[in-house]
Write a structure and sequence with these properties.
Blueprint: H1 3-23, H2 29-62, E1 66-70, E2 84-87, H3 95-121, H4 127-152, H5 158-166, H6 168-192, H7 200-203
Antiparallel strand pairs: 1-2
Helix pairs in contact: 1-4, 2-3, 2-4, 3-4, 3-5, 3-6, 4-6, 5-6
């Protein structure tokens, strides 16, 4: 994907929701500025590892041998976006490959459900922890799903081979459903945390 388009995607799916939460909150500007700067950096470091761990889990489920893997981009070598899981024998059009391919996206869906439950059930008063929870459990999986579905059109995504295994209709349908549910959950959370934490006892009961 074009780097400029990827930056726009990150700004819309990751940074903007964080900004909305914090700018509508009653936390001090100093805390807000710190969180808005550092939380996206945390997301950037851990986004790829969490995704690749999903593939590793898929390999464990089907008993596939992992030839090699890299969870973190080698920032010290000037590489800022390369992580992978190399499966022995490669992937093909079969059910084992399907499980390995879609495991990260199933985890994404579960993550959003968990994140929504945590953020509606518990009153997180620390602005950084609230943003981190929202980021890791909700915004990270939203970005992961959207980015990889966009990647289909660039022929560079796990879902390219997935669509060959289960068909484009099912692949796209799952994506639409996942993104829709994710967006609904995030919008509900944004509304829930308006003016937080000053009116927390009213809005989060």
């Amino acid at each position: 994907m074009n780097p400029i388009l990827r930056i726009i995607e990150i700004l819309i799916l990751v940074v903007l929701p964080l900004l909305i939460v914090y700018l509508r909150s009653s936390w001090p500007n100093k805390e807000i500025n710190f969180n808005v700067i550092f939380l996206p950096l945390i997301w950037y470091v851990f986004y790829a590892p969490i995704h690749e761990i999903g593939h590793i889990l898929g390999c464990v489920i089907v008993g596939a041998e992992i030839k090699d893997y890299q969870l973190f981009a080698h920032f010290w070598e000037g590489s800022f976006g390369f992580a992978y899981v190399d499966v022995q024998g490669g992937l093909d059009v079969n059910m084992n490959s399907l499980i390995i391919l879609i495991s990260p996206y199933i985890l994404d869906f579960i993550s959003i459900i968990i994140g929504y439950y945590i953020l509606t059930r518990y009153k997180i008063k620390n602005s950084f922890l609230l943003g981190l929870t929202f980021l890791i459990f909700c915004l990270r999986p939203l970005y992961d799903i959207v980015d990889n579905y966009i990647g289909i059109f660039y022929n560079h995504s796990d879902l390219v081979l997935t669509s060959k295994i289960i068909g484009e209709y099912i692949t796209y349908s799952y994506g639409i459903i996942s993104v829709t549910i994710s967006l609904i959950a995030i919008i509900l959370l944004l509304n829930k945390y308006k003016n937080y934490p000053k009116v927390e006892t009213q809005s989060l009961e």
